[in-house]
Amino acid sequence: MYMIGVSFKGTVRNGVVVLPPEAKLPEGTEVEITASEVAKDDPPFLQAILKLAKPRDWPEDFALNHAHYVKGHPKNHEVGLCGHLLFPCPFE
Questions:
Q1: How far is the C-alpha of 17 from the C-alpha of 9, rounded, in Å?
Q2: Residue 10 CB: number of other CB atoms within 10 A?
Q3: Radius of gyration for the alpha carbons in the chain, expressed in angstroms and rounded
Q4: How many CA atoms lie within 13 A of 81 on its CB side?
Q5: Residue 43 region, left (φ>0) first, then alpha (ψ -120 to 50), else beta?
Q6: What is the SS3 assignment for 36?
Q7: Taking the C-alpha atoms of 48, 50, 54 and 60 in order, what is their torsion angle to the nearest 10 degrees?
Q8: What percent of the chain has pLDDT over 70?
Q9: Are 22 and 13 a contacting pair, CB within 8 Å?
Q10: How far apart are CA 30 and CA 83, in angstroms?
Q11: How far apart are CA 43 and CA 76, in angstroms?
């Protein structure tokens, strides 16, 4: 049984995430935890930013190819020596 994309809210108690009773996950299920509250000891600026920040399901190359995704321009496929996509250098 696969439960991809299912989400539950839980609470940390004594260092353990306690999920609601309806969250019946098979033993060994890999989960991803995202805290929904800002830590009280974070600087006020960081607390404000974290409250505003939202996760995005954007493609990995969105920064490089934003014109493609927004306006339909051709994708930029330049790759650097490290294997990452690079912007064309405007100074060359």
A1: 9
A2: 13
A3: 20
A4: 0
A5: beta
A6: coil
A7: 130
A8: 75
A9: no
A10: 29
A11: 39
Q: Which two tokens stand for residue 32?
A: 């991803």
Quote the tokens at residue 65.
Answer: 């190819």
pLDDT (0 to 100) of residue 31 = 84
- Token pair recorded at residue 86: 């690079």
Residue 14 in tokens: 């004594």
Q: How far apart are CA 52 and CA 49, in angstroms?
A: 5
Nearest to 34 by CA among 60, 14, 8, 3: 8
SS3 11: strand
Bigger pLDDT: 68 vs 54: 68
pLDDT in tens, 67-86: 888 888 888 766 555 555 55
Distance CA 85, CA 83 (A): 7
How many residues in total does the chain contain? 92
Tokens of 6: 């299912």
